[in-house]
Recover the amino acids of this structure.
């Protein structure tokens, strides 16, 4: 049902000539559960100038279990435009273990349909359960290591997501473990507008 | 054109390496876009989507040799089966060695959650008894917030296996942060605290015995019931942990409030050696026991015990044998002799929180007086359930069929008894070293001689404290 929503959304999206067909084809494949075919079509639509092609591709990436690629693809557009895409955006964050990122997006899903709202409520409860535990220094170090590793691979947007998570988790601890290091990395990563990894 | 391509993509999903059918009308421009997508997917390490996109490019442009070559290269390279999924399937099927190979192949691939792979591969190594290989993988998984609790649980099991009981207890305590793991983890933390080089457990309980003198129903002597209290202490020393020699000392006092002629007290001193493998264990033990009854000397005995158990699949199979050389005090001396007993046992998990054990035992009591000698045998069922964090439930049911060796002229019969036993137990860990216990034991004795039939119910409530390093 959520996938069918994506089809409706794609139908209502105005894109460049030629890109529309691929958006619709991608949405149909997505609805049928053929997420690899959907990804290819959304990518083609994106290359042909469909403004939301990348976001739809990001949704397909979540379904393909490529959470980090999805976070990276979603990073090119801010959340808040569409609740359905934001649901996939939250899923991508959750599956990449970016729990605060997921929580922030889930909190903003105010206009979602009943199905998405139910699923979002369950996911937010799960995120709350994870965040209820005290974050250890080891955990924050793990996020920082991910941030540095992704930066070294040239994946700035993804690296920034990990560093932002580390900074926010560290700020919840009395000793603010890792906050300074994460912020220093973010300064290096975020001066220009966040861009996804060029494929 | 797009519809035809999508149909092509759907067919390709069934066999992505089937021959490419050309589109009705060639479109080199669109083919180039698909090829660009395919190249990007290939660069990202996603074989499946790259193959789909190359197929579309090749279908739209018969002259696109680059896409066809890439497609051929991918198809020649392999089936594209996701090694992570393959590893999961093999793990479920019990092929742990095969699962390890697949998880190893999955590491570093795009889209694979590295901590998940590390956790599962670590669990496989643990199950295979390969602690050295398991530990670094579980440590890697522990760094992931999502897998930290389960990784700590398995690290605790590893530590317990290695005899590092304090470390194991700390890891189980940490793993208890997860609601899903907490019941089992907190129970194992309690077990780990008693697995160190020494442990001293003190137990005090009180209750009621409905039939202290084992009186038959509706016939003399009259049934005598009484309150009771019991004190016990068990000390265990095993300098090299669970795998090695040990000494055990035990003392107890079971005292009736009024009927002190039925008081029992005693002590045991035992020494043994336990050997532990990855999937088996065994022990040999000598035990000296001394008992008093009604405040007077009653029995001293020397017991030899051998026991072994092994894991076969998910079932633990065990067997034990003991020989006890009994010497009763004056007045009871006809009971003196040798008891030999053996038992076979199988236990297995029932769901995530329960364990069921089925056992069958047999014993021969070769008493000095033949009318007191008997052979008995029967089944026993034990169920243990971890109900919630720190709360355990137990239930035992047993039947014993006993036949005496000789006709008893005084009774005018050769005695044959059947004992039906049932017990229920609730244990609650009040604090890391304190455990509260509620127990209910009952026995119904049936006999070919009416005077030996009786019913007895004993509810008790107690408290235990364990000292350990």
């Amino acid at each position: 049902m959520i996938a069918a929503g994506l089809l409706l959304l794609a139908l209502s999206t105005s894109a460049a000539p030629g890109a529309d067909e691929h958006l619709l084809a991608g949405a149909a494949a997505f609805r049928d559960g053929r997420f690899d075919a959907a990804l290819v079509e959304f990518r083609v639509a994106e290359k042909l100038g469909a403004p939301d092609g990348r976001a739809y591709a990001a949704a397909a990436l979540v379904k393909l279990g490529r959470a980090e690629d999805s976070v990276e693809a979603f990073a090119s557009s801010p959340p808040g435009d569409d609740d359905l895409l934001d649901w996939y955006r939250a899923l991508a964050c959750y599956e990449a273990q970016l729990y605060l990122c997921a929580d922030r997006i889930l909190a903003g899903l105010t206009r979602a349909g009943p199905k998405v709202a139910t699923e979002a409520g369950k996911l937010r409860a799960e995120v709350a359960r994870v965040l209820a535990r005290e974050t250890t220094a080891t955990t924050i170090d793990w996020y920082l290591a991910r941030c540095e590793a992704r930066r070294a691979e040239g994946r700035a947007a993804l690296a920034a997501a990990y560093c932002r998570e580390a900074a926010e988790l560290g700020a919840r601890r009395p000793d603010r473990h890792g906050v300074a290091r994460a912020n220093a990395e973010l300064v290096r990563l975020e001066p220009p507008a966040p861009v996804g990894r060029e494929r | 054109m797009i519809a035809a391509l999508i149909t092509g993509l759907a067919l390709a999903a069934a066999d992505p390496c089937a021959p490419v059918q050309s589109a009705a009308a060639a479109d080199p421009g669109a083919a180039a876009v698909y090829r660009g997508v395919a190249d990007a997917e290939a660069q990202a390490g996603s074989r499946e989507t790259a193959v789909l996109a190359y197929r579309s490019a090749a279908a739209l442009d018969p002259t696109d040799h680059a896409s066809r070559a890439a497609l051929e290269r991918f198809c020649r390279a392999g089936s594209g089966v996701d090694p992570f999924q393959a590893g999961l399937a093999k793990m479920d099927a019990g092929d742990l060695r095969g699962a390890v190979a697949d998880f190893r192949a999955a590491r570093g691939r795009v889209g694979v959650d590295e901590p998940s792979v590390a956790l599962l591969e670590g669990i496989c190594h643990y199950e295979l008894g390969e602690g050295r290989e398991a530990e670094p993988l579980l440590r890697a998984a522990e760094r992931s917030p999502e897998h930290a609790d389960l990784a700590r649980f398995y690290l605790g099991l590893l530590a317990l296996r290695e005899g590092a009981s304090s470390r194991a207890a700390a890891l189980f305590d940490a793993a208890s942060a997860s609601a899903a793991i907490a019941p089992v983890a907190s129970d194992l933390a309690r077990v780990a605290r008693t697995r160190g080089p020494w442990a001293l457990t003190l137990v005090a309980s009180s209750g009621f015995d409905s039939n202290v003198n084992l009186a038959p129903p509706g016939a003399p002597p009259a049934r005598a019931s009484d309150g009771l209290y019991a004190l016990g202490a068990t000390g265990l020393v095993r300098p090299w942990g669970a795998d090695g020699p040990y000494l055990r000392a035990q003392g107890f006092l079971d005292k009736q409030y009024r009927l002190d002629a039925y008081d029992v007290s005693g002590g045991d001193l035992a020494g043994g050696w336990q050997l532990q493998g990855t999937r088996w264990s065994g022990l040999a033990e000598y035990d000296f026991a001394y008992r008093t009854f009604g405040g007077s000397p009653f029995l001293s005995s020397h017991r030899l015990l051998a026991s072994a158990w092994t894991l076969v699949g998910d079932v633990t199979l065990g067997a034990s044998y003991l020989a006890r050389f009994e010497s009763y005090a004056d007045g009871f001396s006809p009971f003196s002799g040798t008891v030999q007993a053996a038992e076979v046992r199988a236990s297995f998990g029932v769901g995530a929180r329960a364990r069921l054990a089925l056992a069958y035992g047999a014993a021969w009591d070769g008493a000095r007086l033949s009318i007191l000698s008997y052979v008995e045998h029967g089944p026993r069922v034990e169920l243990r359930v971890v109900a919630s964090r720190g709360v355990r439930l137990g239930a035992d049911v047993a039947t014993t069929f006993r036949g005496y060796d000789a006709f008893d002229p005084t009774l005018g019969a050769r005695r044959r008894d059947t004992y039906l036993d049932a017990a229920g137990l609730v244990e609650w860990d009040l604090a890391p070293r304190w455990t509260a216990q509620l127990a209910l034991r009952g026995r119904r004795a049936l006999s070919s001689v009416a005077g030996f039939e009786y019913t007895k119910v004993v509810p008790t409530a107690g408290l235990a404290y364990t000292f350990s390093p």
User: Anything to note?
Assistant: Confidence is low (pLDDT under 50) at residues 194-199 of chain A. The two ends of chain A are 30 Å apart (CA to CA). Chain A has eleven helices and no strands.
